[in-house]
Design a protein that fits this description.
The protein has an 8-stranded mixed β-sheet with strand order 5-4-1-6-9-10-11-12, sandwiched between helices. The chain has one domain: Rossmann fold (3-Layer(aba) Sandwich). Helices cover 26% and strands 29% of the residues. It starts with 9 loop residues before the first strand and ends with a helix. With 231 residues, it is of the alpha/beta class. The protein is built from 5 helices and 12 strands. Bound molecules: ligand PMT. Keywords: Decarboxylase, Flavoprotein, FMN, Ligase, Lyase, Magnesium, Metal-binding, Multifunctional enzyme. One of its GO terms (molecular function) is phosphopantothenate--cysteine ligase activity. Its EC number is 4.1.1.36, 6.3.2.5. Pathway: Cofactor biosynthesis; coenzyme A biosynthesis; CoA from (R)-pantothenate: step 2/5; Cofactor biosynthesis; coenzyme A biosynthesis; CoA from (R)-pantothenate: step 3/5.
């Protein structure tokens, strides 16, 4: 039987990829399927949490039962929803793959081929939503005991610096837990399975062996349940 250890907790999860529009028919995007974030939302609801899922572009993630879903497209829309809703959350999990950049100009009509070949695409930096949530918590705009969980998708293996990158990212982003995915070989973006590590601010590192995203979700929520304040 599943533990009912998240009963009453309000958990906000982001999932899927952002799409940054270029014109009415084109966008910059990524290969996130939303499966990992949806698996987290589903598992948290099964453990008694009240779950809101803010979902970007997904492919076939399955409908989670008993979860409120809000759909967004771009990073800025995701930021708007997360920063507002984080004020009502006990736990925030950023499993979405957020585009770091967006086109400066969004054409009002479909961009034509033109006689001079393709025009260059100029990019602006998107807000770092996770870092913004940590800042808002520090400033007291969201409750100081809100648990914030980040993800990191890194290429390479443990010896190839994935963990070092993860440790540096945990320090830089200032969240409580960082789930590090090793990308590639049937893991992370768009796949059924995943593998990696969970890093905590106090230096605990737990390996997450290769397995389904559902299994990975339950291991992540085990760690969340340990640190979330219980009323
Ligand atoms: O959706 P799936 O196909 O199931 O795949 C799952 C996943 C691989 C997308 C997911 O497990 C994952 O790792 N998500 C984060 C991937 C990522 O974009 O990592 P990052 O290193 O760019 O970002 C680090 C963290 O900062 C993430 O929590 C991300 O949500 C957040 N971020 C990143 C950029 C940005 N502008 N704002 C953010 O909040």
């Amino acid at each position: 039987a599943l533990p009912y250890d998240l009963a009453g907790q309000r958990i906000l999860v982001s999932a899927g990829g952002t799409r940054e529009p270029l014109d009415p028919v084109r966008y910059l995007g990524n290969h996130s399927s939303g499966k990992q974030g949806y698996a987290l939302a589903r598992a948290a609801a099964q453990r008694g949490a009240q779950v809101t899922l803010v979902a970007g572009a997904t492919s076939d993630p399955g409908e989670p039962a008993a979860v409120d879903i809000v759909h967004i497209e771009s990073a800025r829309e995701l930021e708007h929803e997360m920063s507002r809703r984080a004020r009502e959350a006990d736990v925030v999990i950023m499993a979405a793959a957020v585009a770091d950049f967006r086109p400066v100009d969004v054409a009002g009509s479909k961009i034509k081929k033109g006689d001079d070949g393709p025009a260059p695409i100029r990019l602006d930096t998107n807000p770092d939503i996770l870092a913004g949530l940590v800042r808002a918590r520090g400033a007291g705009d969201i409750a100081r005991d809100t648990v914030i969980v980040g993800f990191a998708a890194e290429t390479g293996d443990a010896d190839g610096g994935v963990l070092d990158h993860g440790r540096a990212k945990l320090r830089r982003k200032g969240c409580d837990l960082l789930v590090v995915n090793a990308v590639g070989d049937g893991k992370a973006f768009g796949t059924e399975d995943n593998a990696g590590w969970i890093l905590t601010v106090d230096g605990n590192e737990t390996a997450l062996p290769f397995g389904s995203k559902t299994l990975m979700a339950s291991r992540i929520l085990d760690e969340v349940a340990v640190i979330v304040p219980h009323s």
